[in-house]
Write a structure and sequence with these properties.
The complex is a heterodimer. Chain A is α+β, with helices and mostly antiparallel strands. Helices cover 15% and strands 37% of the residues of chain A. Chain A has 2 domains: 31 residues; 169 residues, Sandwich (Immunoglobulin-like). In chain A, the strands form 3 sheets. Chain A has a 5-stranded mixed sheet, with no helix packed on it. In chain A, strands 2-3-5-8-12 form a 5-stranded antiparallel sheet, with no helix packed on it. Chain A is elongated, with a radius of gyration of 22 Å. At the A-B interface, helix 2, strand 7 and strand 8 of A face strand 5 and strand 9 of B.
Chain lengths: 202, 212
């Protein structure tokens, strides 16, 4: 076996190059740093551009509820109860031509809580339809009623490559704890989670 | 076509191997004998036995992001039906509370955090994850809310029977990775290791599909 064959040298060079590319961005940016994310702020009723893809997302309204029920469940499906409170976020998404990045929707608060969507019913979801279409739907989160101040919907794109990207933050209108308490007190008894509905984008 | 270099290389290799043939054979024999000795004396891996506490139910275990309180276990037997084989599952009931005071984030109980310890040197059996709120698998537990009633299932042999079952609880740690390897040093929940073993006395339940 010879060590000076051109192919051997090329493979060696390739390894060095791969190592160099991974280090180009600097160690704290190679994995999961947020410094390359531009934050797009907005409020309920505002169509916000998502990740420069021509797609927009709009929160149409939010509802507080004590129980949730699947929209197309059978008659023996029982509503799901909670020790906290459910927040249903109803959304309207218009898809652009470019395929938008997939994202993880979470609710964040001033108290640093991170709420994730309920695992059941599976109608609770948020996603973009195919190009040329728009859809509406609802996503439900189980939350702690004592930590609701500054409730914000956050859509963070999941990126395989480190690119300059943007995340969406929608202020859900809970500026103080008193308002949060009022919303919890006036929560609906039950919220029926319906499947998302797709239409042609006008 | 062979170059002169390769011919010379082959000649040298040939001579070296032939000159030290006995030593080579001896060395290989030694390695084989050493491997046999290690195998005969119980394997290379050092056996340390159990290093975590064993608790009797009802027991509270604080493990990483969750606080568990184990209550009871059931061996659920599904008899052989006309079109299905007999099945047995081990179901363990507990309450779980999200105590993630690092990220305050909602999280479901991952299937590899709870494991059934069959004993006798057998491999551990993974659970199917935490089911809460009326058997909703992978229910997301919210930080700051009171404990939820949950359960988890383990697939066991159809003829499984036991007076006492042992459930291993694993805990995650909020650590960062080694920055010298070029990764982000921001800590996150990972690196599961055993936290405790809980002993429960299971009751046998026959599931004939009638009490649904």
């Amino acid at each position: 076996m010879k060590l000076y064959r051109p192919a051997t040298i090329l493979v060696g060079l390739l390894f060095i190059l791969i190592g160099g590319v991974a280090r180009l961005a600097g160690p704290d940016q190679v994995y999961g740093d947020d410094s390359n994310l531009k934050v797009v702020h907005g409020t309920i009723g505002e169509a916000l551009p998502y990740a420069g893809s021509g797609s927009t997302i709009k929160v149409t309204r939010i509802k507080f509820a004590r129980k949730i029920l699947s929209g197309d469940g059978g008659s023996d499906d029982k509503p799901i109860d909670t020790n906290g409170i459910f927040v249903a976020v109803e959304w309207d998404a218009v898809r652009g031509v470019k395929d938008p990045d997939t994202f993880t929707p979470t609710l964040i608060t001033d108290g640093d809580s991170v709420y994730e969507k309920v695992s059941d019913p599976n109608e609770s979801d948020m996603s973009f339809p195919d190009a040329g279409f728009a859809s509406t739907g609802a996503i439900v989160f189980e939350v702690n009623p004592t930590d609701l101040k500054g409730l914000t919907l956050r859509l963070k794109p999941s990126m395989l490559w480190n690119v300059y990207n943007s995340e969406v933050r929608v202020d859900l209108g809970v500026p103080t704890e008193d308002i949060a308490q009022q919303m919890v007190d006036h929560a609906d008894d039950q919220y029926v989670v319906n499947d998302s509905v797709t239409r042609v984008a006008s | 076509m062979e170059s002169l270099d390769e011919v010379i290389d082959a000649m040298i290799a040939d001579r070296v191997i032939h000159r030290h043939r006995r030593i080579w054979l001896l060395l290989i024999a030694l390695v084989v004998v050493a491997a046999l000795i290690v195998l005969a004396t119980g394997g290379w891996k050092e056996k340390t036995g159990r290093t975590v506490p064993t608790l009797d139910a009802p027991a509270t275990v604080t493990a990483g992001r969750f606080e568990f309180n184990f209550t009871k276990a059931e061996i659920i037997r599904k008899p052989k039906g006309e079109y299905s084989d007999a099945e047995t599952t081990l179901r363990v009931y507990f309450t779980a509370k999200n105590i993630d005071s690092e990220e305050y984030s909602s999280e479901s109980i991952q299937s590899d955090l709870l494991r059934f310890v069959p004993g006798g040197g057998q491999d551990l059996i993974k659970s199917n994850g935490g089911s809460c709120r009326g058997d909703n698998l992978n229910w997301v537990l919210v930080y700051g809310l009171p404990p939820e009633e949950c359960s988890t299932k383990f697939d066991v042999e159809p003829d499984f029977a036991a007076d006492v079952v042992e459930i291993g609880v694993l805990q995650e740690h909020y650590d960062s990775d080694n920055g010298a390897l070029g990764v982000n040093e921001k800590p996150y929940w990972h690196n599961e290791d055993p936290a405790a073993v809980v002993r429960l006395k299971p009751t046998v339940v026959i599931d004939d599909g009638k009490n649904k």
